[in-house]
Amino acid sequence: MRIPPSTLSSLARPVSQRRSVSCYAHQRAAIRSIAFRTSPVVYSRRRWNSSLATEESRSPQSEAILHGKPHHHTHHHHHPSGSPGSALTPIQQYHKLVESGALRADDHQTRIIQKLQRLHDDLVKYEPPAVSHSSSSGSMLSRLFSKGTSHTASVPLDQVPKGLYLYGDVGTGKTMLMDLFYSTLPKHIKRKRRVHFHSFMIDVHKRIHAAKKAMGYRGGDPIEPVARDLASDAYVLCFDEFQVTDIADAMILRQLFERLLNYGIVCVITSNRHPDELYKNGIQRSSFVPCIELLKERFEVTDLDSGTDYRRIPRTLSHVYYDPISPENKQEIEKIFKAYTSDPEDPVVRNRELTTWGRAITVPESSSKVAKFRFDDLCGRAMSAADYLEITKNFGTIFLLDVPKMGLSEKDLARRFITFIDACYDSKVKLLVTSEVPIFKVFADDPTREAHEISAHMRSVMDDLGLSNEVVSASSMFTGDEEVFAFARCCSRLVEMGSKEWAETAGVR
């Protein structure tokens, strides 16, 4: 009997790939009849100028153009990786995107692209200094005299290209421009890294912990070997969403940035805040001020003062949030979970364990790509941002059940929930939720309480994020500047993660 070529091709695939294809086939067949019951929407051709917008509703061709890749690449990538398929410069790539209709011309973004072009040209000629890998071994005498001293190589400032610190309101395209710059770096630059700043700091803390452990009872300076290793890994660093909210991070950054820059590292940073506004009102902020001055001295600090917020483009909502916690909604969300986990070759496992920082995280129900938690499992116990990132790294789709309405007495739960939502957003997770009240109202005060006055700062943040009074005005739980911003940003992200475009493009692993 002659076996059809298509069958031979399928059998030639590795088992893991055949399983993945089978998994997706089962999911599509089951989900099609249950999830996201929305009528077909015909979209007109849209032009996107922010990173969030560019990740939604794009054709493979637009995706390829944006990330500087050949058009036949159709896999979704949340962040660009590697050198472009062609030798286009940032400004050439930007004009190409505008001409193709993937972006629309924006004078403010053009101004930033010109600055990135300057940095690109400087990097073409830049030869970074060699990073020595000094051993921790040596005589007791040498260790005694070297203890507590810095061995960081210092490169003359006039030989190192000046980095770019780009700040501005959300949705103005900062991340999109940085990603465009990263994807068009000269091909000879292999030591490069593009990372969300939150993930970067988790990595730094892990490296410092390992350095202290290696030093043992002798002690010493753990920042120096960490800076040296980071400089050895990459001499071009692109940080997205730079912010400082923790005193431990503030104290580390003051030393780490100085040493990285002395190693000749070149950085592009995006942030919602001017350096002078970083860690504002933080504990021992005076100790962090030298880091602020360093940023202003060694970076070109510029704002993206665009009049357009590209995140405020209307989106068709998808049915991914269910309230209240009724028997009907429980039954519906369970049907969807079973549809997502219907592949017999990838059965649901109970109490799967993940490990991070030596701690075990129990996942109550999960397949290899889909996990289900109850709110108390994730936010009712002491869990960190590293724990949530480990979860979102492993599962592209997460079901979160029984989210309660939270008041002042549940502030710790609210903070963990915000951290979890940030991790889901950063990892492009598809999130399905059941909640006691509409998900945007879980932080609301008791309606019988006296109306809470909205502060000027809160009004400014709400305007930046395009949020209405109905979404956030009733919450008095959050007071400090950083808390207010994190809370309002969480509401904004929940709105976006509930969109049809997000539901259709998120969850890819």
UniProtKB/TrEMBL annotation:
The keyword Endoplasmic reticulum does not apply. Residues 68-80 have a biased composition (Basic residues). GO terms for biological process: protein quality control for misfolded or incompletely synthesized proteins. GO terms for molecular function: ATP binding; ATP hydrolysis activity. Residues 67-88 are annotated as: Disordered. Keywords: ATP-binding, Nucleotide-binding. It comes from the Eukaryota. GO terms for cellular component: mitochondrion. InterPro entries: ATPase_AFG1-like, P-loop_NTPase. Belongs to the AFG1 ATPase family. This is AAA+ ATPase domain-containing protein. It comes from Phlebiopsis gigantea (strain 11061_1 CR5-6).
